Amino acid sequence: MSAKKSTNGRTLARQRRIFQVLERVAPAVGARMLDTIWFRLPQVSEKAKRLRVELPEATPLELPFEGGIVRGRIWSGGVAGGAVRGQGGVDGPTIYLVHGWGGWGLQLAAFVPPLLDAGFRVVAFDAPSHGESEPGRDGAQRSTLPELADAFEAVVAAYGPAYGVMAHSLGAAAVTLALRDGFGARRIVFLATATDFREGLAQYEAHLGFGPRIRAGFLRRFSRRFGPMEGYTVPTIVDALAEERELPALLVIHDRSDRETSADGSIALVDVWPDAKLHLTDGLGHNRVLRDPAVVAAATGFLTEGSTERAAADLPKEEQETMQG
């Protein structure tokens, strides 16, 4: 999460003054105030949500989730590009698109047409309190990383196993939590991965002007609800998972000029994820990486690698076992 998205120019100076006073006289109040800001989703303008790519007709996705509705879209893949279609004419393997904090499923729309051309079935959804979905556990305009992960796992459980996943920013962290819970896929693409909450907290500290007393109080509040913040560091989670089981093939794409999530985190992630590939870009920042033609081609190409593997994924279980000997 980026601190700059939590405030605008008109309110920043006032918030800084308040936090500086609370740091001295009432750090517990400051910690509660920071908690409110931390879990509040940024406002997204309609202009930002404008669709930049033409998409084919989709089937609406509506999934009950903890008292609300998660909404999204499902596209059925064709047979273009030599893609393998399943037995009986059913759709090809499924790719799930997972947005990040304050995002929405169609933020990754540029990837949909080439994935469909490759024969994939594509599922995109808005997490609770995001996009067109209804409010989540904490009410409107609020969410948490565990909620994003739980919603993703619920969508996969409802709409079928994943051949692959493409996830942006905090969505990549959510997929990592799902992997820790037992989720499996063959191939994963992470874009502008958010790897460490402590990096975001440092941004908030510099942006809002609070100090160590409010920071410590906020960390105590966070730990009581979710456990220690360092427990959500993506490379640490992956390092432990790699000791337990084989992980999916991974491509990590990150822009060196990204000011919301550091490319250093993605470099550290690739170091602990066996055989992961790293693709660094320049000048795309945090969001333009989602629609850059070269990035779209690289990500789609990675997901479509290995036609024999993809063909086996479409076969009935008994035929897969025969192929495996």
Structure in words:
With 325 residues, the chain is α/β, with parallel strands linked by helices. It has 12 helices and 8 strands. The chain has helices at residues 9-25, 27-38, 112-117, 145-159, 170-180, 197-208, 212-226, 234-244, 263-272, 293-304, 307-314, 317-323; strands spanning 59-65, 68-75, 94-98, 121-125, 164-168, 187-191, 249-255, 277-281. It has an 8-stranded mixed sheet with strand order 1-2-4-3-5-6-7-8, sandwiched between helices. Helix 9 links the parallel strand 7 (249-255) and strand 8 (277-281). Helix 4 crosses helix 5 (170-180). The chain is globular, with a radius of gyration of 20 Å.
**What percentage of residues falls in helices of 4 or more residues?**
40-55%
Order of helices and strands: HHEEEHEHEHEHHHEHEHHH
The main pleated sheet reads as: 8 strands, mixed
Shape: globular
Brief descriptors of the model:
8-stranded mixed beta sheet
